[in-house]
Amino acid sequence: MIVRSSHFVAGAWVAPECGGTIEVTDASQGVVMASVPAGTAADADRAVRAARDAFPAWSALDVSERVGYLKLAAQELGRRQNEIAALVSRETGMPYATSNVVQVGVPLMTLSAVGEIALGHRFEERVCNSLVIRKPIGVVASITPWNYPLHQLVAKVAPALAAGCTVVAKPSEVAPLSAFALAEIFESVGLPAGVFNLVCGDGLSVGEALVAHPEVDMVTFTGSTAAGKRIGEVAARTVKRVALELGGKSPLVALDDADPVAAVTAGVSACYLNSGQTCMALTRLIVPAARKAEYEAIAKAAAEQVVVGDPFEATSVIGPLATAAQLERVRGYIRSGIEEGARLLSGGAEPPEGLEEGYYVRPTVFTDTTPDMRIVREEIFGPVLVIQTYETEDEAVALANDTVYGLHAGVYSADVDRAVAFAHRLEAGQVQINDGAFNIHAPFGGVKQSGNGRELGEAGFEDFLETVSFQLP
Ligand code: NAD
Q1: What residues contact 461, with CB distance under 8 A and at least 6 apart?
Q2: What is the 171 CA–ligand 1 centroid distance (Å)?
Q3: What is the pLDDT of residues 233-268, one digit of tens each?
Q4: Ligand 1 proximal residues by C-beta, below 6 Å
Q5: Among 281, 358, 268, which Cα is nearest to 317's?
Q6: Among 27, 277, 332, 333, which is disulfide-ready with 93 (CB 3.0 to 4.6 Å)?
Q7: Which residues pair with 23 in a beta bridge?
């Protein structure tokens, strides 16, 4: 049992103002593995003041000095990679080998990529008689979810710090432990007091207090679209900048010349990664009607080959869902698909055989779906793939874009130029073309109700800067 009883504020581990705690559950066992403080608005306020006090000196440092701290933090994170990957596996259920690469390996790459971007950034330029200056925006509140807890935190904190901002981080109450490790890392490398602060608690008590706080200049949020809308409303009262990375219901379109095995293999793995608890999961496989039966057979076989098991078994491809609430939600969606008349090709609402403890669910595929079904329209956040069919390419575009979301999409074709032309017609912040890999150097974010602002890449760095201009004589 891990007990975290302090917040990290102004460079010190401090007791919360009130004594409440939040329990963290081990996803594969369904038992309590840790407790963290249930912070309050008073804790949020103390952390914001610490960040405000630290801002003048931190923002005045040369960018190379700020990047120097990120490099030291990367070294320390590398040293603790296995330990932190195991923690995240226990919290989220992601298999350990994947967790090592994705949950910690990606933040490691991000720390170094952000450093390069910051060092190469032009903070000042002459435009005719003006000097245009990019300044750090100020105190940033970072509010993050539980599915990729360290990646989401580092993708915000690293560029914010490199830009010269100071940060108050509020991780998800479901998976907060890697955020404590990150605070320890910043402490161990001597990051100046108050530059990074950590408070724990739920969204209403700590999250909203940060969003409403007049001394917070920017909120960077990753999470559900419902919470993002609320954050936008609350932040508007103090006219602060808000960057939102929200949910998705992302399509993968197989064009009529695509290799069905390649398209389905990519689709199934992109849908089931982290047991489907991935904002950019490609959860709708859109295939040519003429080849429906072929696609169905391949998708059924691919889903049945996915090994569900304990996150610490080397053979496990996917582990359990993160929480009991997630399990209920995903099973509810599978039942709703059956009730609404979709045909179950594989999986179902019953737990996988031999995995009745913990929050396991069967990799599931539905076909014979209609665009109005809940399993087609709503973000399930579980390993549930739905097949949709089209007659013409225009219809494929219309189906792909028939969603309030626009985070991610995929296109498969034998002809990359054709796939790129098709991708231009999609309403999505990023498009995977054939097996094009996720790239931490490229900007990431959504259109429509999947959010605004960008993370990673040059655009993700610029989000933390404010532009001012001096008109020279
Ligand atoms: P969530 O919205 O419930 O919570 C996310 C974070 O926001 C948590 O820290 C929570 O405590 C906090 N929060 C909740 N309500 C708040 C409020 N009113 N004010 C301030 N803070 C508040 O989301 P979740 O269940 O943790 O994560 C799953 C969701 O996140 C999914 O919808 C998923 O698609 C989305 N997500 C999006 C991305 C992306 O980059 N677009 C990445 C991962 C997850």
Answers
A1: 114, 117, 118, 121, 159, 162, 163
A2: 10
A3: 999 999 999 999 999 999 999 999 999 999 999 999
A4: 143-147, 170, 172-173, 202-204, 207-208, 211, 222-224, 227, 230-231, 245-248, 279, 379, 381, 407, 446, 450-451
A5: 268
A6: 27
A7: 35
For the chain, domain boundaries: 2-246+449-471, 250-440
Q: Which atom of ligand 1 is nearest to the CA of 143?
A: 9
Of 143, 407, 452, 456, best ligand 1 pocket probe by most atoms within 8 Å of the beta carbon: 143
**From ligand 1's centre to the CA of 175, what distance in Å?**
12
Q: Are 282 and 244 in contact (CB under 8 A)?
A: no
The percent of the chain in helix, strand and coil, each rounded to the nearest 5, is: 45, 20, 35
* Distance from chain centroid for Cα 215: 26
Q: Which of 43, 91, 222, 444 to mutate to test the pocket of ligand 1 (most atoms within 8 A of CB)?
A: 222
Q: Look up residue 217 and give its amino acid.
A: D
Cβ burial 40-55 (10 Å sphere, 16+ → b, else e)? bbebbbbbbbbbbebb
The 10s digit of each residue's pLDDT in 384-420 is 999 999 999 999 999 999 999 999 999 999 999 999 9
CA–CA separation, 168 and 152 (whole Å): 14
Give the length of the chain.
473
**Amino acid, res. 95:** P
- Per residue in 133-156, pLDDT tens? 999 999 999 999 999 999 999 999
d(CA 467, CA 122): 12
Q: How far is the CA of 20 from the centre of ligand 1 (A)?
A: 22
State the closest ligand 1 atom to the C-alpha of 245, by its place in the atom list counted from 1: 41
Residues marked active site are found at: 245, 279
Atom 26 of ligand 1, residue of closest alpha carbon: 145
- Nearest protein Cα to ligand 1, atom 10: 203
pLDDT for position 19:
77
- Report pLDDT digits (tens) over 155-169: 999 999 999 999 999
Residue nearest (by alpha carbon) to ligand 1 atom 34: 247
Global pTM reads 0.97
CA dist 41 and 176 (Å) reads 18
pLDDT per position as a tens digit, 159-218: 999 999 999 999 999 999 999 999 999 999 999 999 999 999 999 999 999 999 999 999
Architecture of domain 250-440: 3-Layer(aba) Sandwich (3.40)
Q: How many CB atoms lie within 10 A of CB 346?
A: 20
Ligand 1 atom closest to the CA of 247, numbered from 1 = 34
